[in-house]
Each structure stands twice: as structure tokens, then as C-alpha cells.
Design goal:
It is a single chain. This protein has three helices and 18 strands. By secondary structure, the protein is mostly beta strands. It has one domain (5-270): Porin (Beta Barrel), CATH 2.40.160. The chain has a 14-stranded antiparallel beta sheet with strand order 2-3-4-5-6-7-8-9-10-11-12-13-14-15. It has a two-stranded antiparallel ribbon with strand order 1-18. It has a two-stranded antiparallel sheet with strand order 16-17. A hairpin with a 2-residue loop joins β12 (171-180) and β13 (183-195).
């Protein structure tokens, strides 16, 4: 059986613009129309030219995303290029419908309440055919200087998340405290580093999923993060002390001739 290898070809993209265009483009958030899953939120996926998201925009807002990955039992991860995520913008709200394949009987809806273009509350519903929407979980957001706090409850589990920023508005650290039955159960700490000087292409995508949210928080793009997870002694685990878990991730982005991140670029297949 032949093995397939993919070589990334990062091609320089050239354009002509006036000084006014440069100023306008500097202020405006990027609107990527495509992005490979291995560059965006599926770090373990092998580079593959057919696995990419497609984005559309309307009036400066993300309107839709096509493409979704699923982890299937006994099959592994599979990418479906035409599964639709649709965004609508009623007054001071953002509604996201995560539609499924035609044979599915359920899909998820996220409803965000917004203030000053930032989420202050989110509710996630399961929609079953023939039944009213069922609230699965909710989040509340609060904002301080160089800090975002998020509280989430799902069943008997609570999550207290804090994001910390530097003076350049780049994310430098996050902490997640997980509680079960009101008892501290787990602490997850992540540090972010190796920022580039490029604009952040996730700014208009950040509500779609947690990976896009994390990446979209900063002014620029982190290319490394280190995570430490520590389970705490609790009556549920016999007050045992467990060693921490570690995870490291690194990104090697491709950039265009203007120094901006390329989420989609030509891939050459070599057999």
C-alpha cells in the first residue's frame, strides 16, 4: 500500500493598495473564507487537502461554517465537509445552530446574550425532533482589566475559568477550577507563549467552538501552549493524591507576504 505524504506549499500572496486601504485593513478583523482543520482546531489531524472549513460572512459577521469533524467509535475521526453551522444575529444576541447530518434526530443550539459585542451569557440546548429544546448547560461571563472570568455548570459539575492577558492584549495564562458537588476536584493551568506579530484570524470565528474562542482572545497568535492538569484529593477518590498530567502544543503557521497567518494554502500531494 502506498503511503501518502503532503508537502505544504506556502505561496506568497501579493496585492496592491492605497494608504487608505492599509489603514482600513489594519483596523478591520480578518475574514478567512477557508481554513484547514489541522491549522485550526484538530491538531492531531494529518495535513490533507480535502479537510478544511468554509466560512461566509454578512454585514461584517460570520454567517455560516461548513465542515465538522466527528470522533466515531471503532472508526476514529472522520471529517464531513458539508455539515452546516449557521449563525444569526437577533437584537443583542447571537444564535448558533450546529446542524447535523440528515439522518440525525438532534442538533445543538447555542444562544449568546451580548453587551458591547462581547458575550455575557450563553445557553446550550439540545433540539430533538418533536420535543421542545432541552437546556444542557449555561455560561456567564464577566470582564475586568486584563481578565475574563467564565462560570459554567453542567449537571453537578461546575467550571470556574479565568483568562489573563498582558498589556498587549495577548492571552498569557488560563486557569480552570472544576468542582463536583461543591468540592474542588481538578485544576487545569495553561500558559501561552511565542506570539507572532500577525493579526488574529479567529476574531470573527471565536463563538463557534472552544478552540476558536481560546485562539480568538488575543490580539496576535500564540504558537505554543503548555497545560498542567491536577486532580485534587476528594472523598470521592479516597483523598488520594495523583501526579499531574502535562500536555504541550506548538503551531508552525504559514504566513503570506504581508506577514498574516494563512489558514488555507495549496497542499501538494506526493505519493
Amino acid at each position: 500500500m502506498k503511503k501518502l505524504f503532503y508537502v505544504v506549499l506556502a505561496l506568497g500572496l501579493f496585492s496592491c493598495s492605497t494608504n487608505d486601504d492599509v489603514v482600513e485593513n489594519t483596523k478591520a478583523d480578518l475574514e478567512p473564507d477557508k481554513g484547514y482543520i489541522f491549522e485550526m482546531d484538530r491538531r492531531s489531524a494529518m495535513p490533507s487537502p480535502e479537510k478544511y472549513y468554509r466560512f461566509t460572512y454578512e454585514n461584517g459577521h460570520l454567517k455560516s461554517m461548513l465542515g465538522r469533524s466527528y470522533s466515531l467509535l471503532n472508526v476514529g475521526e472522520h471529517f464531513y465537509p458539508d455539515v452546516l453551522t449557521k449563525l444569526t444575529y437577533p437584537h443583542n444576541k447571537v444564535q448558533i445552530d450546529f446542524f447535523e447530518m440528515e439522518d440525525s434526530s438532534v442538533y445543538i443550539t447555542a444562544s449568546y446574550s451580548m453587551e458591547n459585542n462581547m458575550p455575557v451569557k450563553a445557553e446550550f440546548y439540545e433540539n430533538y425532533k418533536g420535543y421542545p429544546p432541552y437546556l444542557v448547560t449555561s455560561k456567564t461571563y464577566s470582564y475586568e482589566k486584563h481578565k475574563i472570568k467564565i462560570y459554567q455548570k453542567r449537571g453537578g459539575i461546575e467550571y470556574y475559568t479565568t483568562y489573563l492577558f498582558d498589556d498587549k492584549n495577548n492571552l498569557v495564562k488560563s486557569e480552570i477550577l472544576q468542582k463536583a458537588g461543591g468540592i474542588d476536584e481538578k485544576i487545569t493551568t495553561t500558559t501561552y507563549s511565542d506570539f507572532d506579530n500577525a493579526k488574529n484570524p479567529f476574531k470573527k470565528l471565536y463563538l463557534v467552538n472552544e478552540d476558536f474562542y481560546e485562539k480568538g482572545l488575543s490580539a496576535n497568535n500564540f504558537r505554543a501552549k503548555k497545560t498542567t492538569s491536577q486532580y485534587l484529593p476528594t472523598p470521592a477518590n479516597g483523598n488520594m493524591t495523583y501526579p499531574p498530567g502535562y500536555a504541550n502544543s506548538e503551531w508552525t503557521y504559514n504566513y503570506d507576504s504581508n506577514g498574516q497567518v494563512l489558514l488555507y494554502f495549496p497542499l501538494k500531494k506526493i505519493e
